[in-house]
Write a sequence for this structure.
């Protein structure tokens, strides 16, 4: 049974875009129960009309809760609207007791009859102490797992969070929707960068300036990995400017032990590639005197660090890989030996294959990708979303291009976060 539907359109007039979207949704939903939860992602051309846009959605679908955000790009199905006046909407029929909308005015917390297990989070990138707030929110959900991203816009950065108790359009802070453990999801983080050298441990650091890696001068490690000579700045500077830093916490491999505890959220590291535990940050300077490097984050002694670069081919492979992992996680389990004779007898009597055991299917999906991955980065317009559609199939999917991506309790860059809602086959 299809309980999620999506539609999308692009038009400079938000009313026209919304009319096209609602007409498509209504046609797809003919005869279905009223939706309970909706997602709305809109291009920044429509940010000035966010309040009337939300009001129109609430009027057209009374009783539906809404979450969403503005993005310099939005996506749906296999289509990207990057720097276009796009609008992407998805509706679901999730039981109301299984989710709660939250915002700065209505913080997320456990309540009678509802225990948050996972949460979709939208945030304003200008929010003070954002990384700490994400970590705190992660501790409020049972699985510790968050997914989502930072709204992106050149002018008005907005998120949406509204239900029967109120809410609306927000600037600043965090908002979103939490789900209880009965809402089954599978989520993966796909990396867009590839290491250019070994992973080393930080052994000397002052705030964001790293001075030693495995006891060696950090700048010497950087120059060695890149194969450049600091005395030849014309050749060295372009390589340095294109180099990024991958950081992971020293206890992360054990603490993130999601493969055993929550395999639906795990993306382990692979040879020559980053796993979920790595956050990519910009290299913002060097200290030739003390042989240090400055990164765009607070670093700590004991963390692991690897230099890396953006790599389109690696990003393509990793995107296909996580989508394949998601599909594999939903495939039915093998029939137990004691059930095989009955299954074979049923097949012989009816001519039909036995039903799958334990299989699930994708009901709907959300995809949040970095603004640095959108547009031409994957080689052609909508190429990233076409890859995803080919790997997942034609499933309801909406999302946006973010100023930072949220997965587990981390804030990422140059990544994509794919989350699917599943139902039994």
């Amino acid at each position: 049974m299809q309980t999620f539907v999506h539609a999308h359109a692009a038009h400079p007039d938000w009313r026209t875009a919304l009319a096209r979207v609602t007409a498509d949704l209504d046609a797809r939903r003919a005869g279905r129960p009223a939706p309970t939860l909706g997602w709305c992602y809109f291009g920044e051309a429509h940010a000035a009309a966010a309040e009337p846009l939300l009001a129109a959605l609430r009027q057209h679908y009374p009783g539906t809760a809404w979450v969403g955000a503005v993005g310099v790009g939005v996506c749906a199905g296999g289509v990207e609207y990057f720097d276009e006046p796009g609008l992407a909407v998805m509706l679901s029929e999730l039981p109301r007791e299984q989710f709660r909308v939250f915002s700065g005015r209505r913080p997320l917390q456990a309540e009678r009859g509802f225990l948050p297990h996972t949460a979709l989070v939208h945030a304003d990138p200008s929010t003070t102490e954002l990384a700490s707030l994400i970590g705190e929110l992660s501790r409020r959900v049972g699985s510790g797992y968050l997914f989502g991203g930072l709204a992106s816009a050149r002018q008005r950065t907005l998120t949406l969070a509204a239900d029967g108790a109120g809410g609306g359009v927000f600037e600043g802070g965090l908002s979103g929707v939490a789900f209880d453990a009965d809402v089954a999801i599978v989520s993966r983080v796909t990396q867009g960068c590839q290491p250019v050298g070994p992973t080393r441990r930080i052994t000397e650091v002052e705030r964001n300036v790293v001075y030693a890696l495995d006891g060696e001068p950090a700048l010497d490690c950087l120059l060695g990995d890149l194969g450049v000579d600091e005395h030849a700045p014309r050749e060295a500077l372009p390589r340095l400017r294109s180099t990024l830093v991958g950081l992971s916490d020293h206890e992360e491999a054990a603490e993130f032990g999601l493969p055993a505890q929550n395999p639906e959220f795990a993306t382990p590291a692979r040879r020559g590639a980053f796993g979920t535990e790595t956050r990519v940050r910009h290299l913002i300077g060097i200290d030739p005197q003390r042989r240090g490097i400055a990164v765009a984050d607070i670093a700590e002694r004991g963390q692991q660090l690897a230099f890396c670069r953006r790599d389109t081919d690696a990003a393509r492979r990793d995107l296909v890989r996580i989508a394949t992992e998601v599909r594999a996680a939903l495939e039915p389990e093998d029939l137990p030996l004691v059930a095989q004779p009955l299954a074979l007898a049923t097949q012989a009597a009816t001519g039909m294959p036995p039903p799958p055991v334990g299989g699930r299917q994708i009901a709907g999906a959300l995809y949040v990708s970095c603004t640095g991955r959108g547009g031409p980065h994957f080689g052609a317009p909508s190429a990233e979303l076409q890859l995803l559609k080919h790997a997942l199939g034609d499933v309801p999917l909406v999302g946006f291009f973010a100023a930072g991506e949220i997965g587990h309790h981390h804030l990422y860059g140059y990544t994509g976060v794919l989350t699917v809602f599943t139902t039994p086959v």
In short: The two ends are 9 Å apart (CA to CA).
